[in-house]
Design goal:
The structure is a homodimer of 310-residue chains. Chain A is α/β, with parallel strands linked by helices. The first copy, chain A, has two domains: 134 residues, NAD(P)-binding Rossmann-like Domain (Rossmann fold), CATH 3.40.50; 162 residues, Dihydrodipicolinate Reductase, domain 2 (2-Layer Sandwich), CATH 3.30.360. Chain A contains ten helices and 15 strands. In chain A, the strands form three sheets. In chain A, strands 3-4-2-1-5-6-7 form a seven-stranded mixed beta sheet, with helices on both faces. In chain A, a hairpin with a 2-residue loop joins strand 9 and strand 10. The longest helix of chain A is centred in the last third of the chain and has 20 residues. The model of chain A has no long low-confidence stretch (mean pLDDT 97). The interface between A and B is large, with 49 and 49 residues.
């Protein structure tokens, strides 16, 4: 196979620009960038932005299409890229919970990426680091219950929100909710539960999330309480996480330390003094634009491209 | 009794200045302000700062001494104020867990304030709003377990940290830990547990806290998971909290909305989908300098002054 022909759709957004940077760093040469008509003609990472029209995406000259656009744009455009023969790796929530569409974190369920029928979904930026930390603990002791309180950077809501935070007087910095509500929880909270259940293939795992936006530009953090089926000490959990793929154990994970790294930082691992049995609590941080989004999508692409080479 | 003679010690700090403002707003006229020698002579809220020497505090002309100084300064100075006949209400952690010293949140255990022997301790700024929300739920259904993840404003670490955040480029804003460690948890985490147990008189209540500093100037927030002994629906919990003293139920509590109010905002009350039974999750926010500190101390003073009038 020749150099893979990669397209980044939504290449001018917060995740798209990181994807272009990572692709360049990883040595991909045949990269094109698409965005809305408004951005067509702009130069980004040395590439001229093309308009993401159905015809352009269906032209048959793309091997992997990395979509970092909104959910409705993904619903509209992804099928055209697939029709043109590309494998679409979609960052939006459009396809994540669709039966038959693999929802993939390479370190957790990478094999599923190869079962695609043209589309692989990239999970929510909180779900990815969470499952990286949970999966090895599940394999060791079986997950019983999970509670998670998030500290999410504004870049998770897009580049415009980053600009808004940069302009905001510090006195107005706040902690809050900017997701839609689905019944008694936020859309983000139900996403984290449903996606983590699908990725780990634990459809009945009880998960309760409390999602919160904080005035940080880049890097999500999460407080996580876990109950396991079998006893697992904090020391054992730390040992397991030290050899877990994609995870780096540190004393105190912070978004700033995680920023621009490929790793999920996990630390503050200790016994949960409130648990009846087998409880652990930990804190994690991850660059929501890198491992939480663009890097995870590229890793999925690489799994698929590696298979295509065989 | 004549107008109570009130002294604010540490009146130039983040909490002390709020105490002076609240005292003025509540109509107290006989207020003096003390601070370190460095600040003596400064004018604050129209008052000339006096040096907080042992002799000045022991002179016998203070009825209530509100201490908002560090733990070691409290250990040194509080006994002198008590020796001079004042009731000392101390914001530091010096006396909070000392046997015989009441640790008081007026809405939760106000009666205990009257049992003082010269000193009443004012709890940690996270413990105060937490117990305001927990106590009425405990009375209704019995608390079984509590897990809390905090979002703490930098003003909880003092006025200098507020200035530092104001100067910090937004790109450096972070989420992290700035407390000392006590074994496998932060000092703040063990304070929240021990203080909530003491205030609610539930010495064995299992509490697990994950304390986190966020780049917000004023206002602490907390994600709280609760398990109750008896069943308690989210609707019942909300009803109970609507009539709880010091609590205001809102859809989405935020630090900004709580700032400069006297209330603990509680919302996002829902069933905990991860609990085996009787689980609730909620979110709260509170002005850490007002109800979380200065107001709570003044409310304690008022309980004691009201008793002195009888």
């Amino acid at each position: 196979m020749a150099d893979p022909r990669i397209a980044v759709i939504g290449g001018t957004g917060a995740v798209g620009t990181v994807a272009l940077r990572l692709l360049r760093k990883r040595g991909y040469d045949d990269v094109r960038v698409f965005a809305s008509a408004r951005s067509a003609g702009r130069i980004i990472e040395g590439l001229t932005v093309e308009e993401a029209t159905p015809d352009a995406l269906a032209a048959g000259d793309i091997d992997v299409a990395l979509f970092s656009v909104g959910t409705s744009a993904s619903r509209e455009l992804v099928p055209h890229a697939v029709r043109g023969g590309a494998v679409a790796i979609d960052k939006s929530s459009a396809y994540r919970l669709v039966d038959g569409v693999p929802l993939v974190v390479p370190e957790v369920n990478g094999d599923r990426a190869l079962e695609h029928d043209g589309i692989v979904a990239n999970p929510n930026c909180c779900t990815i680091p969470l499952t990286c930390a949970l999966k090895p603990l599940h394999e060791a002791a079986g997950l019983g219950r999970v509670r998670v309180s998030t500290y999410q950077a504004v870049s998770g809501a897009g580049a415009q929100r980053m600009d808004a935070l940069r302009r905001e007087p510090v006195d107005e910095h706040n902690v809050g909710v900017d997701w839609s509500w689905e019944g008694d929880e936020t859309e983000e909270e139900s996403k984290i539960r449903a996606e983590a259940q699908k990725i780990m293939e634990l459809p009945d795992l009880p998960i309760s999330a409390n999602t919160v936006r904080v005035p940080v530009l880049v890097g999500h953090a999460e407080s996580v309480w876990i109950e396991t089926e079998e006893p697992l000490s904090a020391a054992q959990a730390e040992e397991i996480l030290r050899s877990a793929p994609g995870v780096q154990v540190v004393d105190t994970p912070t978004p700033r330390d995680a920023a621009q790294t490929d790793q999920v930082l996990v630390g503050r691992i200790r016994e949960d003094r409130a648990a009846e049995r087998n409880g652990l609590v930990l804190f994690l941080a991850c660059d929501n634009l890198v491992k939480g989004a663009a890097l995870n999508a590229i890793q999925i692409a690489e799994l698929i491209l590696a298979r295509a080479l065989v």
